[in-house]
């Protein structure tokens, strides 16, 4: 799967990564290595640093299984996730690019015809990164 991702990166207009937040905040060394490889791959493309900036702006990190993180550890876990992502994903405005949610809770709410706040937030952020990516592409195309 990693090779498929790497081959597709030159065509990607946005990037979304789902993190299992229950495993050490979801940011084990292998995830940091993968994000670093993605960063290096994009940097090696024509217009690399510009592409990295675009991908950093149009990225979204979904921290899943949030319901399994104890209430008293959530603030600490959020700070840890943001800190670690900043280390391995430079150039991103992570305050607006991370969603903490439980897909289990979202599915339960959907079965009853509702939508959780977290799922609604995810949909809004997906919309934002897609619109941002379209605007960046249009701007670059007409330059």
From TrEMBL:
Gene3D superfamilies from the UniProt entry: P-loop containing nucleotide triphosphate hydrolases
Stored SUPFAM superfamilies: P-loop containing nucleoside triphosphate hydrolases
InterPro entries registered for this protein in UniProt: P-loop_NTPase
Protein name: Uncharacterized protein
